[in-house]
Amino acid sequence: MQLEKYFTETDGGFSFSRQQASDFAKTVAGDFNPIHDVDAKRFCVPGDLLFATVVARQGLWRRMHFRFSGMVGDGVTLSLEPVATNEVVLGDGHGKHFLSVCREGEVTHDAQIIDEVVCQYVSFSGQTFPDILVPLMASHEVMINPDRPLVIYESMEIDLDTLDIAKPRLALVGTSLAVKGRRGDVEVRFDLHDQDRVVGRGSKKLALGGLQAWDADKIESLVATYRQRKAKYGQA
Fold first, then answer.
1. d(CA 120, CA 190)
2. In this structure, what DSSP letter does residue 222 have?
3. For residues 27 and 137, what is the distance between their CA atoms, to the nearest angstrom?
């Protein structure tokens, strides 16, 4: 993955340029959300890039929980600050925190294991829209606003039975959507396999905003636009 291509070391920590963040989203995660485009007005660094960078720096622990609390813009100098024995936060050094990370159990700093697990999760996570979210919304007859889609990455967690992992593979095991008025709470659950055994499990939680009644034509148009963006990037 060569994660070092996607962030810049600074005197006080590290930062992400728009180009680095956008390249990671499209090349590594397969995520073509316009909010990660270089010229996006409301640009933000992908949550999965924050996740990948933290794990690369802190190591992969048997149990890890990530909670996102703010969007990171380009050029913001970030650092990891310990706040408890088993918890660190990602902040800007001026009191603004963007991510908290709780860790428990054994830890590995083996670069190959970390790269394999992180790449598998990021690739899986990047397919949330449309592959996972669209069928889930359809089953509940609701959808995000196609003109102003609001999907917020709230948290993810992973619980590993072992750190002795060679060729990990993530598999979707279940999804749920709880509709509360115009808000929807989504959970995506997965297992982590290594060859013929399950070696861990985890989940990703999202919040959907501005929900409205399901309209198949509008969703099909939104998905078509998304896939066109992806195809266009592949031809660039």
1. 11
2. H
3. 27
Cα–Cα dist 193/209, whole Å: 33
Per DSSP, the three-state class of 130 is helix
pTM exceeds 0.90 for this model: yes
CATH for 153: 2.40.160
CB 173 within 8 A of CB 189: yes
3-state secondary structure of 160: strand
pLDDT at residue number 235: 54
The residue segments making up the domain with residue 168 are 3-235
What is residue 77's three-state secondary structure?
coil
Q: What is the C-alpha to C-alpha distance for residues 6 and 36, in angstroms, rounded to an integer?
A: 13
Nearest to 132 by CA among 218, 70, 42, 208: 208
pLDDT tens digit string along 100-114? 999 999 999 999 999
* Count of structural domains within the chain: 1
For residues 156 and 205, what is the distance between their CA atoms, to the nearest angstrom? Answer: 6
